[in-house]
Design goal:
Rossmann fold; 12 helices; 31% helix; 430 residues; GMP Synthetase, Chain A, domain 3; globular; homodimer; five-stranded parallel sheet; alpha/beta
């Protein structure tokens, strides 16, 4: 009988046992960072915490948070807890809003990364006989490298194509018979567009069956569109350069996001007060890496908003769950006193008949007043039908029903919004 | 005492022993491809050779060559000798002149690749405490992946930056303290230009000491320029997607190219007649991969022209040598009955005072007659001095002294020839 889980013993471990393991690892971690890194040593002393004070998981709350600001200050290697020469790989964020965030790995860290990625890809259905087209952008960005490591651990074939040159992507997908793809969800939709232009039917002309998507926020409705368009099952991946890149969660067949909790301890806090919330409440995700060597993080504030919860799952995995990300606190827009996440607008738009998957939220600022509008591409067919005011009206109503806010929607000519091979730019300022 | 070789036992093995090992592996290989691949089975039968007929290394000459044409015909996986599901990684050439060439690897092949790359990088001086900025373009192209595997095997830190965004390259080089760089030689020169524009002195403002260059033809003179410009030692790397990507040779401190002959059996043939030449003669390199599983090649005609020779080297390595590549038979130009390789023109140009590293060979065809001219950028200083006809005259004389051919040279304004982050385009047609 083929095995159901990549690492059955760990993935189905009773929650109680898992928590005991977390505590054991947490104690070790605190001692480790205290001994090996000046910044952490100072931080712990300032908080008046000695490693021996950590007696329960709850005691983690005695410790201060680690913020983006700390990472910037100690850029590039100030938070490393090993010798620099023990690092074998480094990734980095793009650093568009300041110094990049650096993710250094020892050999053991790389193995750990491969292991949690193998779990995640295996949970998506990837097996040894699959061919994974790895269309995330290779480079400093962490994504592609994580997918490569995990898929190779499973023994699948990795086609290291990176992003871009979309016609070539389609030819390779056809010629090699790729059965799985890893990229941003918006890039997969652009690929479908190009495949159609090349005369293919994305649903029937390829062997594709699994999509491994991440690195941008996307709604459940968008997921359904991707699945329909390609005739595949689309899975969510979640990760951050600061934690381990992709591989933080494993999405099962039930489309539940299981946190790989033997390695990543998760808390949810109020983004305003920093107060720890009980499981089941929405808040900012905070992660502690329990086993990383080069660059462990202690209570890292992700700014990502989601719910953490502990309940049983039909898939048999016992690891705690998190909801999909509602948005990042950075992405939050405040319009006429209403909090708006781009993902909410996407959810509304995707309900309209005749819409393509391409839209843009236009933010305009006049003095202190922010207003929003939306530009959305109907499908070619819908565009030709005309009567676009009914299309627009319907979209405005859907948005209103979710947000209680009037946001004007304009139908624009198909294929006018720029396509991206990486993260789609959903919000623009004008 | 620090060790001198990555794999002392193999790299200093007496030549006689090495040849015994080659023969043993060759016999096994012939049996293997005969049993496991229809194409090879048919080819061997057509040549009337049974595996048992291979009794000496010389017997390889009984076998037919493998050509680019064969690879195209059996694209993508027709030459694979394992099950497709045993492949864990695939690379490919750009396929600009037809179907791409595909390089599939099993897990053992990947390990072998890492091993020969580790030998090569170690021979360049790369050690565990080095930081390798991997500026080859990641993607389907084989280069970056090979350097990553080899450097990680040594335990060096790999900065997976890929090519492009040159200002960022320079910032990372500075911030991370990169001690080694891997990229095309022409890209390293462009980086130096950008570093200077950013106010850095490439020689003194960085920790760089080792350059690992390849993927394009470059002359010894160009190598000296790169070394002077950056204050580093520049090493040549050689490889092909069909063989194993980079890692075919290890360049030692003496700047001799040692073929990793326990894995790659080398012949040199006359490109015209296909006849095997004695060591010491220049001809087309032909490789047989002795140990690859997924995609072994038997007598692959590379079209690369070089000399294969067996002599002792001061570095202590016993593996046979090859000269640097003079050019590919595809690159050969025939002008007024004279055979010209772009590398010869480069050698001539680099001898002139006041030349930058940027030049272009312009090929013009009128009916059956091909003529050549050269456009070369003087340095900024030389450009400002004026009297450029003496610059041009000197360049023409140097070229004449090598080729016995008059090739007009035109000095053109600095920074007008397009820079590349990958292979430089040295010959253009007008």
């Amino acid at each position: 009988m083929p095995k159901e889980f990549w690492d059955s013993k760990t993935e189905t471990m009773p929650l109680k046992e898992l928590k005991d393991l977390q505590l054991k690892r947490l104690k070790k971690l605190i001692q480790y960072v205290y001994n090996n890194n000046q910044f952490y040593n100072k931080k712990l002393k300032e908080a008046n915490v000695k490693p021996a004070d950590i007696k329960t998981l709850k005691d983690i709350e005695k410790l201060p948070f680690l913020t983006k600001q700390d990472l910037r200050e100690y850029y590039p290697f100030g938070l490393v807890c090993t010798k620099i020469e023990d690092i074998v790989e480094v990734h980095a964020s793009s650093g568009t809003t300041g110094k990049p965030v650096v993710g250094p790995y020892t050999k053991n860290d790389v193995d750990l990364w491969g292991e949690v990625m193998a779990r995640s890809l295996y949970a998506n259905g990837l097996r040894k006989n699959d061919i994974l087209q790895n269309s995330y952008g290779y480079g400093l960005f962490t994504g592609a490298h994580g997918f490569e490591k995990g898929a190779q651990k499973i023994g699948a074939m990795v086609v290291t194509i990176s992003s871009g040159n979309t016609k070539r992507q389609i030819n390779v997908m056809k010629d090699f018979g790729s059965t799985a793809i890893a990229c941003t969800p918006s890039y997969s939709l652009y690929m479908a567009e190009v495949a159609e232009e090349m005369g293919f039917d994305p649903k029937t002309d390829f062997k594709l069956k699994i999509g491994c998507f991440g690195a941008e926020a996307w709604s459940d409705e968008m997921r359904k569109n991707v699945e329909k368009r390609w005739g595949i099952t689309a899975h969510e991946h979640y990760g951050l350069t600061e934690i381990i890149g992709p591989g933080v969660v494993s999405e099962c067949k039930e489309k539940k996001l299981h946190i790989n909790a033997d390695h990543f301890l998760t808390e949810v806090i109020s983004p305003d007060t920093g107060e720890t919330l009980e499981p089941g409440n929405e808040g900012e995700l905070v992660f502690t890496t329990l086993t990383k060597e080069a660059f462990p993080v202690l209570r890292f504030r992700t700014r990502d908003l989601a719910v953490y919860y502990e309940e049983s799952c039909n898939c048999g995995r016992t690891h705690p769950l998190m909801s999909r990300i509602k948005g990042r606190s950075d992405d939050m827009l405040k319009v006429k006193g209403v909090i708006v996440f781009p993902s909410q607008i996407e959810s509304a738009l995707m309900k309209i008949e005749g819409i393509s998957d391409n839209y843009q939220i236009v933010k305009t600022k006049k003095g202190d007043i922010t207003s929003l509008s939306v530009e959305a591409e109907p499908t070619e067919d819908r565009w030709k039908q005309g009567k676009l005011d009914s299309f627009e009206k319907q979209a405005e109503d859907e948005i209103y029903s979710i947000l209680n806010l009037h946001v004007p929607v304009k139908a624009i000519e198909p294929k006018t919004i720029p396509r991206s091979t990486g993260k789609a730019k959903r919000v623009i300022e004008r």
